[in-house]
Specification:
It contains three helices and five strands, in the order βαβααβββ. The protein is an alpha+beta fold and 83 residues long. It has one domain: Beta-grasp domain (Ubiquitin-like (UB roll)), CATH 3.10.20. Strands 2-1-5-3-4 form a five-stranded mixed β-sheet. Helix 2 packs antiparallel against helix 3. The radius of gyration is 12 Å and the shape is globular. Pfam families: ThiS. This is ThiamineS protein. It comes from Acidimicrobium ferrooxidans (strain DSM 10331 / JCM 15462 / NBRC 103882 / ICP).
């Protein structure tokens, strides 16, 4: 199955693109997205991804969320700032 990933902030910088498409097994979950990104950018990215949230459509989802062919997963890094 093919899934699109929308990458924000430091995850986008680590991968070098704001949108990528990945091929995953038919029974893939969001956790498989994490593994795919670590495979592409290296093990140091794992720590950041462990602090990220993931969204499909208008729902924030857990790592065990099953994916559907053609889904778009948004990878949302932690945000800080303000005064």
């Amino acid at each position: 199955m093919r899934v699109s990933l929308e990458l924000l902030g430091p995850v986008r910088e680590a991968i070098g693109s704001s949108v990528i498409e990945v091929a995953l097994e038919p029974d893939a979950t969001v956790a498989d997205v994490v593994e795919e990104l670590v495979e592409r950018a290296g093990e140091p990215l794992r720590g950041l991804l462990e602090r990220c949230r993931f969204a499909i459509g208008d729902r924030v989802v857990d790592l065990d969320e099953p994916l559907a062919d053609g889904a778009t997963v948004v990878v949302i890094p932690p945000v800080s700032g303000g005064s």
